[in-house]
């Protein structure tokens, strides 16, 4: 009865045994169901009994062997129940072996006797089964009378089974028994040899270590690693070596349990790298207490990983170099374009410059996407924690989208926000995600609304950011595809709108780095809604913002040192800063910059981070160590075309006060000047000179006359209507030219001519008249219409400036 494999058994001869009076067939069937449903409980109780009565050293180590034993015993009980009737009491005088109970006892006794188990031991163990079955049955939630009938049946079964066990145990083992004994022993030896062969044949090294750290056995794969001249089975069959795991492997087994990886291991075949698993032996009998240790050779995988990491580092270095080499000329083009825009340009030339500027922006965006994604793939994303205002982020995003929105008169951006507290987090990456999502929405939405929203979620400092549009929407099967790199939902998108298909992949990766998630919902024909949920820590009570915007700092001409090795970038920086009213000196190397600092007292230094003789960080450290106190305390601004790849911590460590990306963003430069030196440029960059020149094309007297005649409020509404209509006209002219519809061009130019002239916009009116005349004669060149479109797009800003000048001093209506 002691648990072993193949414990189930079905007797050969069966005859009816009389059941106690009052146990019906239905009740016997219910007992059978109860015992089968209690299989797991019976198994657990039997194992516990054997362990507490010191029978475990004679029995199987695996729980399933015990379960098989319980299943065999339950099958015999059910067989007895199936052959009973409810009319008579148990007949204890029935011939032994002719009923299921004694037949089971005879077979079980013979089987265990052949294994060398004594009668006393087997009867003791069998009584444990009896107690378990009776106790579990006594716990059954059935009527008391039924339960008592079940118990009488089980007592009868176990009584008769014990009779069967004892009846044949004392007799001599005959020839049949002897043959059975040989067969059983041969099967056991073969079974042992089979599993020993499997153990020795395993590719992975495996060691059996007892609870004291001594190696009891190891397979051939392990022996080849740690022992000289090893052969299969040499450890199992050889003399006891008394090897300890720590001495053999070179590290403690407890460390393996904690880490799961041992590192370098010195073996007979050289130094190898292993991942190691340690599993306690699954022995419920507790005869074999110890650990099964398996070595997994990961040397080649580690080498491959190291090679991949080396390649990733090489790729990163290449990308850093390529970033500088590619972005520098791109931003040089942008800078020179800005210089051209500061100068006197004919309308046609201004249209050309605008086209160059837009193309440069697109190219810079594509390069940035590729490099940003490569950086994220290489794991080079670092998070910064700064206090910031979510409201300010939303305003920044909307403001940066305005150039794109102005090209679509029928589109507007709306910001939806609730009362949002100051927060702490990576403002730059959050801004990058929202800019990317919003620019996509603007790009794919020809008309309607793009809504940027932010709200604080209940229960914690978690926030939801949304970007919704009324664009064409995305098919359901493409919703996950759009987040994959280099993939767009429609292959025609890249032809119509450009781009790399990396923007959303970058956004989702960045969202993951922020600990958030980016999702999308969309209905074709009705638009899309992108949602970013992210946790942001509570920030300071007064996050950085535009608190001083209402009180601009005083204008002052500064002496600036620009350290830039690229000639074009140096020219751009010098020209723009000079145009802003500052004195500028350029140094092409770090050494030249140090010489200049020794010769002249500057107010501020702007240095590129990639110089031929030393990088900008090294130059900054050298300046901070300068003997002259004024020089050592100069405000330092880092310049780079590779903004997202610049480490803020490295800048701070080097003593750099601010960072300015290339090409210069004038508003950002003014902000830096205000913060670092407490002044602004005498001539605000990018605004005053061109605007002043543009005002010469407007008859301010006409505007002022409207304001005085109609009142300031009514006249302002007229100007606002003109601002909106002129943008719509620009878009309509582009569509008409795309379709070569000269009649529409003529009509649009005619209406624009009248509207512009009515408000005093002489230059715009004259250009519209030229287009009208040429289009009416079917001789209108595309370049001429392009000039008019460019003038239309510049008109709203010009109208604001002209109205401010013309309405000054006019009373409200």
Walkthrough of the structure:
This protein is of the alpha/beta class and 813 residues long. Among the domains are: 147 residues, Orthogonal Bundle (Globin-like), CATH 1.10.490; 96 residues, Beta-Lactamase (2-Layer Sandwich), CATH 3.30.450; 149 residues, Heat Shock Protein 90 (2-Layer Sandwich), CATH 3.30.565.10; 111 residues, Four Helix Bundle (Hemerythrin (Met), subunit A), CATH 1.20.120. Helices cover 54% and strands 13% of the residues. It is built from 29 helices and 18 strands. A 5-stranded antiparallel sheet has the order 2-1-5-4-3, with helices on both faces. A 5-stranded mixed sheet has the order 7-9-10-12-11. A 5-stranded parallel sheet has the order 15-14-16-17-18, with helices on both faces. Strand 17, helix 22 and strand 18 form a beta-alpha-beta unit. Helix 4 packs across helix 6 and helix 14 runs parallel beside helix 15. The longest helix has 44 residues. The chain is elongated and about 130 Å long. The termini are far apart. About 4% of the residues have low confidence.
Blueprint (SSEs and pairs):
Blueprint: H1 25-37, H2 39-52, H3 63-82, H4 100-114, H5 119-138, H6 144-169, H7 175-201, E1 206-210, E2 215-218, H8 220-226, H9 234-237, H10 245-249, H11 253-259, E3 261-267, E4 270-280, E5 290-297, H12 299-342, H13 347-377, E6 386-388, H14 390-405, E7 411-417, E8 423-425, H15 427-444, E9 448-456, E10 462-469, H16 493-497, H17 503-513, E11 517-523, E12 527-535, E13 537-538, E14 559-563, H18 567-579, E15 583-587, H19 590-599, E16 604-608, H20 616-624, H21 629-632, E17 636-640, H22 648-654, E18 658-661, H23 666-677, H24 688-695, H25 700-710, H26 712-738, H27 742-758, H28 762-776, H29 782-806
Parallel strand pairs: 7-9, 14-15, 14-16, 16-17, 17-18
Antiparallel strand pairs: 1-2, 1-5, 3-4, 4-5, 6-8, 8-13, 9-10, 10-12, 11-12
């Amino acid at each position: 009865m002691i648990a072993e494999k193949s414990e189930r058994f079905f007797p050969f001869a069966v005859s009816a045994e009389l059941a106690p009076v009052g146990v019906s067939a239905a009740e016997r069937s219910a007992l059978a169901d109860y015992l089968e449903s209690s299989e797991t409980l019976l198994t657990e109780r039997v194992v516990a009994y054997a362990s507490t009565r010191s029978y475990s050293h004679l029995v199987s180590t695996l729980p399933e062997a015990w379960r098989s034993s319980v299943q065999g015993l339950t099958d015999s009980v059910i067989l007895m129940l199936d052959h009973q009737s409810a009319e008579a009491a148990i007949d204890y005088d029935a011939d032994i072996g002719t009923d299921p109970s004694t037949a089971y006892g005879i077979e079980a006794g013979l089987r265990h006797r052949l294994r060398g188990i004594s009668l006393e031991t087997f009867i003791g163990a069998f009584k444990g089964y009896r107690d378990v079955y009776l106790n579990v049955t006594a716990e059954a939630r059935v009527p008391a009378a039924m339960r008592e009938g079940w118990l009488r049946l089980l007592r009868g079964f176990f009584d008769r089974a014990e009779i069967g066990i004892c009846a044949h145990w004392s007799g001599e083992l005959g020839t049949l028994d002897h043959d059975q004994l040989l067969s059983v022993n041969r099967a056991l030896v073969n079974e042992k040899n089979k599993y020993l062969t499997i153990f020795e044949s395993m590719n992975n090294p495996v060691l059996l270590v007892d609870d004291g750290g001594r190696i009891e056995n190891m397979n051939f794969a392990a022996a080849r690693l740690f022992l000289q001249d090893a052969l299969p089975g040499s450890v199992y069959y050889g003399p006891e070596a008394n090897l300890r795991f720590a001495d053999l492997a070179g590290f403690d087994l407890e460390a393996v349990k904690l880490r799961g990886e041992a590192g370098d291991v010195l073996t007979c075949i050289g130094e190898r790298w292993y991942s190691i698993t340690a599993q306690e032996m699954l022995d419920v009998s507790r005869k074999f207490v110890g650990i099964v240790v398996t070595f997994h050779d990961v040397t080649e995988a580690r080498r491959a990983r190291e090679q991949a990491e080396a390649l990733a580092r090489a790729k990163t270095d290449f990308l850093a170099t390529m970033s500088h080499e590619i972005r520098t000329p791109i931003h040089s083009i942008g800078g020179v374009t800005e210089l051209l825009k500061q100068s006197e340009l004919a309308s046609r030339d201004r249209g050309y410059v605008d086209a160059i500027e837009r193309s440069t922006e697109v190219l810079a965006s594509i390069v940035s996407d590729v490099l940003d994604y490569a950086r994220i793939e290489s794991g080079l994303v670092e998070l910064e924690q700064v206090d910031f205002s979510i409201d300010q982020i939303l305003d920044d995003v909307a403001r940066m989208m305005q150039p794109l929105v102005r090209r679509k008169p029928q589109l507007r951006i709306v910001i939806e926000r609730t009362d949002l507290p100051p927060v702490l987090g990576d403002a730059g990456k959050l801004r990058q995600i929202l800019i990317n999502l919003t620019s996509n929405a603007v790009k794919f939405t020809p008309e309607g609304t793009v809504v940027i929203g932010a709200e604080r979620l209940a229960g914690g400092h978690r926030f939801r950011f949304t970007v919704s549009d009324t664009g064409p929407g995305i098919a359901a099967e493409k919703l996950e595809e759009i987040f994959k790199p280099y993939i767009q939902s429609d292959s025609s998108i890249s032809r119509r709108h450009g781009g790399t298909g990396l923007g959303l992949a970058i956004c989702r990766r960045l969202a993951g780095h922020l600990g958030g998630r980016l999702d999308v919902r969309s209905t074709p024909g009705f638009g899309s809604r992108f949602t970013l949920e992210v946790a942001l820590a509570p920030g300071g009570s007064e996050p950085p913002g535009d608190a001083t915007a209402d009180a601009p700092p005083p204008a002052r001409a500064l002496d600036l040192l620009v350290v830039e090795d690229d000639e074009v970038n140096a020219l751009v920086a010098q020209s723009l800063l000079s145009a802003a009213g500052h004195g500028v000196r350029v140094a092409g190397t770090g050494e030249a910059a140090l010489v200049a600092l020794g010769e002249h007292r500057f107010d501020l230094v702007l240095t590129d981070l990639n110089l031929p003789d030393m990088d900008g960080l090294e130059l900054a450290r050298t300046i901070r160590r300068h003997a002259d106190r004024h020089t050592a305390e100069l405000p330092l601004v880092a310049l780079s075309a590779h903004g997202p790849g610049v480490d803020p911590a490295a800048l701070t460590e080097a003593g750099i006060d601010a960072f300015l990306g290339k090409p210069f963003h004038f508003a950002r430069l003014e902000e830096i000047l205000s913060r670092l030196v407490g002044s602004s440029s005498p001539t605000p960059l990018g605004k005053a000179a061109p605007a002043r020149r543009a005002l010469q094309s407007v008859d301010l007297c006409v505007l002022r006359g409207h304001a005085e005649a109609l009142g300031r409020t009514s006249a302002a509404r007229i100007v606002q209507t003109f601002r909106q209509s002129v943008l719509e006209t620009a878009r309509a002219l582009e569509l008409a030219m795309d379709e070569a519809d000269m009649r529409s061009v003529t009509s649009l130019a005619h209406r624009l001519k009248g509207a512009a002239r009515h408000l005093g916009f002489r230059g715009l009116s004259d250009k519209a008249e030229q287009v009208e005349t040429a289009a009416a004669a079917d001789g209108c060149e595309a370049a001429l219409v392009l000039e008019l479109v460019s003038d239309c797009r510049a008109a709203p800003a010009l109208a604001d400036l002209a109205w401010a000048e013309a309405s000054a001093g006019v009373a409200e209506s």
